[in-house]
Amino acid sequence: MAREKIQIKKIDNATARQVTFSKRRRGLFKKAQELSVLCDADIALIIFSSTGKLFEYASSSMKEILERHNLHAKNLSKIEQPSLELQLVENSNYSALSKEITAQSQQLRQIRGEEIQGLNLEELQQLEKSLEAGLGRVIEKKAMRLVEENERLRQQVLEKHNSQKPVRADSENIVMEEGQSSESVTTNLCNSNSAPQDYESSDTSLKLGLPYSG
């Protein structure tokens, strides 16, 4: 048979309420003890009954656990509420940083030629010197970059030229070989053409009765 689920609300009957309190208090202390043993935790329980009676449980020393609790609460309040001196220092740092950011922003706008109406002659001359110095550094850096780029391009052209030299040498060898072959063919043709001429000369000499000098 299933147990009837107890509705969580105040028990009106004083006797029943006291019995339930005693049972549940013992069960709560037992669970606290088990939790302390299983998890190696420091646990302290303080209970006041409806009649004002004190019941407590501590896994070690109740006094030491309460002192640790109070110390932790004090440290936590210090972290949440910083001291007045710290607040003053933070406000001072914030004010100094804010002023520096404002000054740097104004100087940057003046370098771009903005907000210079209120500058006097000395301030304008100082701004001009700053711009000239900055422009000189830019020109110098640009010249260095141009020299580096020219050197890089020169190296690329030189590497490309060196890589094409063997190809040209091979081409010249091929042309020479082809020239020699042409000369050989010409020589062979000349030799072949000269043979019939000798034959014709000998035949003519025989017909005329002349001595053959072949």
From TrEMBL:
This is Uncharacterized protein. PROSITE patterns: K_BOX, MADS_BOX_1, MADS_BOX_2. SMART domains: MADS. Residues 87-182 form the K-box domain. Residues 179-196 have a biased composition (Polar residues). Residues 1-61 form the MADS-box domain. It is found in: Nucleus. It comes from Prunus persica.
